[in-house]
Amino acid sequence: MSLKILGIESSCDDTSAAVLCDAKLYSNIISTQKIHEKYGGVVPELASRAHQQNIILVVKEALQEANLQLSDIDAIAFTKGPGLLGSLMVGTSFAKGMSISSGIPLVGVNHLHGHVLAHMLREKEEATFNPVFPYLCLLVSGGHTQIVLVKDYLDYEILGKTIDDAAGEAFDKCAKVLGLGYPGGPVIDKLAGIGDSQKFQFNKPRIPELDFSFSGLKTSFLYTLRDNQKYDASFIEQNVNDLAASLQRTIIEILIEKLEKAVRMTGIKEIAISGGVSANSGLRNGLLALANRQGWNLHLPKLKYTTDNAAMIALVGHFMYLSGKISNPDIVPQARLDFCDF
Ligand code: KG4
Ligand code: ZN
């Protein structure tokens, strides 16, 4: 008898459903909301409306692609937080409705735990991935930047985190002032590939231990634009590739320096990265080279599992179900959910 988990993710602007059988992925459907692009960021009200429109189709498609009926499913895992409350409520209500009408148990999942396990996801035809614990996970997304010590599938400790902006926010906010739209990370990544990463120097934070800060970098970036635009109105236009490359290099340096410090402090060389920013080609290539030099065992998630998806929620749901962490039917979503909370 295999264990079949239906995963549902709706914490921000991606409506997603996935089916996992014995921890192998049978389907992972993602509907990304394009409507936010023209507003330069996610508009919460529009996000919840779009989830409402998409969720039935997305869940149906996930079951169909896996060739299963709802009655075949052993547990429904859904994102209970953190995220936008209106968005979380759509996924939560949908999962609760399905659970009540079918009698299938519910598992409320912390979205961030999904990111931390995302590199373990394997499709049904692939060999199983057997993680080595403990490992260090650099979680870098639009809302979070932290180094997590992962002691087991469901046992985590935060070693360091950002004291202000997240790395993804730094990409997005700087991209916005360059007029590059939202989300900015992927565009900066692309332009950085053809720019000179040494052309501009931005301030790097001096934060103790393993914490991060990105607000000073953002200010330094803005001042560079302001100072140069005084004399040259076409400064951004003329330098956009070099600005993108220099910004990306600085963000990567900040991330990698702290990760190296975490390795020195813990002696752990089993490393994973996760979250939307872990799709960044400069970060991936930089870490691959470093891992090679330092003898790290580096685990990069597949690109499709770096950003928000239900597959990672189903995977956490799989381990929670096995350890008896079943949710009560009166569970409510939590916009603010601490990393270590289940
Ligand atoms: O994990 P995610 O999908 O959502 C959150 O939970 O926040 O991460 C979204 C973030 C955005 O800030 C986006 O700009 C960034 O990930 N991102 C990237 C890249 N792809 C997505 N940042 C840098 N380079 C990329 N290729
Ligand atoms: Zn996320």
What do you see in this structure?
The protein is α/β, with parallel strands linked by helices and 342 residues long. The protein has helices at residues 44-65, 85-102, 111-117, 167-177, 184-192, 215-229, 235-266, 281-294, 310-322, and strands at 4-9, 14-21, 24-32, 75-81, 106-110, 122-123, 135-140, 145-152, 155-161, 270-274, 297-299. The strands form 2 sheets. Strands 5-4-1-2-3-6 form a 6-stranded mixed beta sheet, sandwiched between helices. The longest helix has 32 residues, at 235-266. Bound molecules: 5'-O-[(R)-(carboxyoxy)(hydroxy)phosphoryl]adenosine and zinc ion.
In short:
The protein is an alpha/beta fold.
Descriptive terms for the model:
Nucleotidyltransferase, domain 5, 11 strands, alpha/beta, binds 5'-O-[(R)-(carboxyoxy)(hydroxy)phosphoryl]adenosine, globular, 342 residues, 41% helix, single chain, 6-stranded mixed sheet, 5-stranded mixed sheet, 2 domains, binds zinc ion
Main sheet? Answer: 6 strands, mixed
Q: What is the CATH topology classification name of the largest domain?
A: Nucleotidyltransferase, domain 5
Give the SSE string. Answer: EEEHEHEHEEEEHHHHEHEH
The strand order across the widest sheet is: 5-4-1-2-3-6
Range of strand content? 15-25%
Going by CATH, the architecture of the largest domain would be: 2-Layer Sandwich
Q: What's the CATH H-level superfamily name of the largest domain?
A: ATPase, nucleotide binding domain
Number of strands: 11
Helix content: 40-55%
**Small molecules (ligands, ions, cofactors) in the structure:** 5'-O-[(R)-(carboxyoxy)(hydroxy)phosphoryl]adenosine, zinc ion
- Secondary structural class: alpha/beta
Task: Count structural domains.
Answer: 2
Low-confidence stretches are: none
As a whole number of angstroms, the C-alpha radius of gyration is 20 Å
